Amino acid sequence: MRRPYRKLNLDERRILATMLQAKATKTKIAEALGRDRSTIHREIKRNWWHDEEVPQADGYWHLSAQMLADRRHLKRRKLECHEDLRNEVIAKLKEGWSPEQIAGRLKIEPRAPYRICHETIYRYVYSESGQSQELSRHLSERQRKRKPRYARKARDRVFPLETSIHNRPDEINDRSQFGNWEGDLMIFERAQGNANVATLVERKTRFTVLLRNNDRKSRPLMNKLIDEMSPLPAQARRSITFDRGFEFTSWRELQNGMGTKAWFCDPQAPWQKGSVENMNKRVRRYLPRDTALLSLQNRHLKSLCDRLNATPRKCLGYRTPAEAFRDELLKLERR
Predict the structure, then answer these.
(1) Are residues 237 and 224 part of one domain?
(2) Strand, coil or helix: what is 163?
(3) Angle at which helices 10-21 and 37-46 cross, to 10°
(4) CB 45 within 8 A of CB 59
(5) Rounded CA separation 325/231 (Å)
(6) Where would I find the Integrase catalytic domain in this sequence (predicted)?
């Protein structure tokens, strides 16, 4: 696995300068410092001292190299240095703008005194100062800390190719088989904590189940689904289709716990589970993002679920999902 880059310190720069003066090759310097040759090459190129007035002073000097590196570091801390820019960026984040939108807008604003890269905004959000202000909660995809790309888990290991929605059988795709569900997680404002609502929709009957969940971790969610669906006959809980959110990484618990197969949409393609996405829009009319879920009684959620399942649907010939679901269960009993 690729190692994270670590900047040279003053002692390493002193050794580098001494070995350069002794005409040592970059390969020898890299071996002496325990670094990659490309790191040495980049260090020399970036921190080579150029003096127009005294050309004889050109070269790599450890003190000047440290000064140039520190100067670049200060430039990257633009949001720490300029209070007006920092306040504007924070205000836009709270309005729901993404760092890329903020940076892009500043580039076209004729009166904007500063330009900034979206990466700089991300670094500030996850810096100690940004964490103390809880700025990450204003991002669309929130994380406690930012992880380098190469440290993330490979998606093909978490969601293997054989679980792709493209391998899903035709009887599931055409909704001819009963017992295949779609699942999703409805997220609410950060002020409501980790509380969320899991939505399950049976593809053939559009029967809906809503579950309040007080944890966004994957394993507790899967345990909640198992507790809710285990009483159903095995033919009524054949599979569930999810997106590739981190909430569903423990999907194997479903198969081990009750024999339910898991399928997954393509990356960035939640529309491929359209039934549950459509249902989420319906539910949002009754449970907006600022809903205080922890104070919501279980009977209120059950009442909402009953209302949704008692509403006639055109795709069911104007039968209700509850009627269609009950008919399918009766068919299973007669077999």
Answers:
(1) yes
(2) helix
(3) 90
(4) no
(5) 15
(6) 165-329
Residue 1 pLDDT exceeds 50: no
Distance from chain centroid for Cα 256: 26
**CATH code for position 198:** 3.30.420.10
User: Has residue 171 been placed in a domain?
Assistant: yes
Q: Which two structure tokens, joined as six digits, stand for 55?
A: 């050309």
Write down the pLDDT at residue 75. Answer: 56
Cβ atoms of 199 and 186 closer than 8 Å:
yes
Where is the domain boundary, 118, 150, 182? 150
Average pLDDT (67-87) is 77
Give the residue numbers spanning the domain of 71.
Answer: 10-76
Q: Label residue 258 exposed, middle or buried (CB < 10 Å: 0-12, 13-18, 19+).
A: middle
Kindly state the helix (H) or strand (E) to which residue 212 belongs, with its residue range: strand 208-213
Q: Residue 5 domain-assigned? A: no
Domain membership of residue 51 (yes or no) is yes
Q: What is the pLDDT of residue 150?
A: 47
170 and 294 share one domain: yes
pLDDT class of 71 with cuts at 50, 70, 90:
confident
Residues 132 and 91 in one domain: yes
In tens, the pLDDT along 114-140 reads 888 888 888 888 887 888 888 888 887
pLDDT value of residue 204: 96
Contacts of 174 (CB under 8 A, 6+ apart): none
Q: Which of 24, 44, 76 is at the close of a domain?
A: 76
Both 37 and 178 in one domain: the answer is no
Q: How far apart are CA 325 and CA 321, in angstroms?
A: 6
pLDDT digits (tens, 9 = 90+) for 255-283: 888 999 999 999 888 899 999 999 999 99
Domain count, the chain: 3
